[in-house]
Amino acid sequence: MTTSEPIDIDPAANDTALRLIVAECFGVDVPTFQGEGPSCGHPALFIRVSRCNLSCAKCDTKYTWDWSQFDPQRESTKRKAEDLLAWATSSSVELVVITGGEPLLQQVGLVPLVHGLLAAGKRVEFETNGTIAPVPELVVDGVRFNVSPKIASFGMDEAKSVVPAALEAFAGSGRAAFKFVASSVSDLDRIAELADAHNLAPVWVMPEGTTADAITATTRVIADAVAARHWHFTTRLHVLAFADARGR
């Protein structure tokens, strides 16, 4: 099967005992950092949920959705929110990043986890593709959203990856930063169009690449143009530091 359809997830379910479909958790036994965006360089724990509603050609976590290459039974497990909370609170690291896949496919099940993390003194960042608006229970103090709309050059039909109502919900929340992957100056022009059309701010740009050499090369292509637009720039620290090793 080649689809990214979120198998066995009902996003409308309202069961606080719902088991979350998780690809991996890391950062407790082997410490790491948030590698991208406004918190780049901060020590972080990661909960990577499985399944996605997009199928981007340049995705670097296809093991969360591409069942033509990966076995979902091997690549994911079902875990209770209380177990994930116990794992995260076993560490003194403050920042917990919930990523994917697309985590907001499972956002109803994530609400009790997030509230437990906040009660334990953690802060939470969601990495999301921006196609699904967050439920009000997640738009609270201590939660931020790193929203990464996928433009056509990332290998995704924008008719599916750009959802104006969802983007505008994030923009209106006051809790979002908009992080775009770019590989060329023409990508920046498209990013500017989207930012202007949907009032997306602040804008962060990240160079495409899964190796240090590729990131450096792309940085040099786009850095001047990003600076000229007065946007923020972020690298991919985990690639530079850990060679894009899984679980780092």
Could you please describe the fold and organization of this structure?
This protein is an alpha/beta fold and 248 residues long. The chain has a single domain, classed as Aldolase class I (TIM Barrel, Alpha-Beta Barrel), CATH 3.20.20. The chain is built from eight helices and ten strands. The protein has helices at 72-75, 81-89, 107-119, 158-161, 164-173, 185-198, 212-228, 237-242, and strands at 20-26, 32-33, 43-49, 77-79, 95-99, 123-128, 143-147, 176-182, 203-207, 232-233. Strands 1, 2, 3, 4, 5, 6, 7, 8, 9 and 10 form a ten-stranded mixed sheet that branches. Strand 8, helix 6 (185-198) and strand 9 (203-207) form a beta-alpha-beta unit. The radius of gyration is 17 Å and the shape is globular. 43% of the residues are buried. The model is unreliable at 1-7 and 11-17 (pLDDT under 50).
Q: How would you briefly describe this protein structure?
A:
With 248 residues, the protein is of the alpha/beta class. It is built from eight helices and ten strands.
CATH domain topology: TIM Barrel
The poorly predicted ranges are 1-7, 11-17
Biggest sheet character:
10 strands, mixed
**Rg (CA only):** 17 Å
CATH architecture: Alpha-Beta Barrel
Please work out how many helical segments DSSP would assign.
Answer: 8
Cα shape: globular
Distance between the termini: 28 Å
Q: How many distinct beta strands?
A: 10
**Please, what is the average pLDDT?**
93
